[in-house]
Structure formats: structure tokens, C-alpha cells
């Protein structure tokens, strides 16, 4: 049976690649116009490309920020990607004064000047042994900011100027700093596990 996924329009995401990734797995997708489908949907995807401030502005303009926060706090099936992960936290060095969704305590930090910023390309993802959805492998990253810890979540890490949170999971919530939709077979398998397990 096809699974329906509600995709959020952040105004900064490459929706075409996200929608194509779910289509390849046999899922049906629809774009949320307001908070109602986000609250009622079995599965919600929060994609993200661009800056923390622009992503939050788009979510708030559509009335979606609180709906996402409620889903994440409840552990409802939600998949966040790239800036989507960063948006779940309280604030970011990238956009001082902009409040995040605040579903997870913490702040997004810029990579140190000792490494190439932004990080573009493939990096190894190493999950903690108790992760349910996350598996070891290589994923595609495109980020200048990262999260160093995610209280109350199981995490996978990567290394770029030090260890950082490559992805996190809590109940049926999965959030990836990398782009699973651009991560080949590794990302395809992760999205598939989330669809099946949610």
C-alpha cells in the first residue's frame, strides 16, 4: 500500500529532488498549505536548503513552526533534512536573534576556521549502537553550521573539524544534517526504513 507523506514548503528547499526520492520508493506526496495537514498526517518531511533565518521565516509565515514542534515533541513520524535539522533547535550562529522551532534544546554552531567551510561532499556517518533508523555509511553534506549535541536523542556523528551530529532520532523522528535525497543508495535505504518504521 502506498504511504502518503506531507512535505512542508519552507521556501528554501529543493522540493523536486525530495519529491522524486519519495516517488522512487512508491510513496505519494503532497505539499502542506497550512498547519492542519501537518498536525493530522502520519508522516511529515521538513526539507531544507539555505539559511536558518530564511527557513524559519518561511515556516512561521505558513504557520507551520508550532505544528512541527508539537510533532517532534510527541515523537510523531517526522523526517528533517539539512537546515531542517538545524531548525529544530533553539537558535543558530548563522542568524543571531532568530528563534528556532525549539523542539530540541541547543544551538547550531559554525564550523571552525581550521576546516573548509562550507563542508561540501561525502562524509562518513557513524550511528550509536542503539539507533533504530540510522546506519553506518557515507552521506552527502552541504553545510557551514552543525550541532554538537542533541539532548534526549540517539545520534549518529561525522567528523569535520571535530565530531558533530550528522543525524538524530527520537521515537519516529529522524533528522539528518546531510541530504538523504542526494546520498545515493545510503539515503534511499534510510528514507525507506523511515517510511516502513514510521
Model regions low in confidence, pLDDT < 50 over at least 5 residues? none
For this structure, the quaternary state is single chain
Which strands sit side by side, in order, in the main sheet? 2-1-3-4-12-11-10-7-8
Rg from alpha-carbon coordinates: 15 Å
Question: Which class best fits the helix and strand makeup?
Answer: alpha/beta
**Major sheet characteristics:** 9 strands, mixed
Instruction: List SSEs in N-to-C order.
Output: EHEHEHHEHEEEEEEEEH
Distance between the termini: 14 Å
User: How much helical structure, as a percent, in the residues?
Assistant: 25-40%
Count of alpha and pi helical runs: 6
Number-wise, the strands total: 12
Shape: globular
Mean pLDDT: 93
Strand content: 25-35%
Identify the notable features of this structure and list them briefly.
12 strands, 29% strand, three-stranded mixed beta sheet, alpha/beta, nine-stranded mixed beta sheet, 198 residues
If you had to describe this structure to a student in words, what would you say it looks like?
The chain has six helices and twelve strands. It is an alpha/beta fold and 198 residues long. The protein is 28% helix and 29% strand. Helix 1 links the parallel strand 1 and strand 2. It has a nine-stranded mixed β-sheet with strand order 2-1-3-4-12-11-10-7-8, sandwiched between helices. The protein is globular, with a radius of gyration of 15 Å.
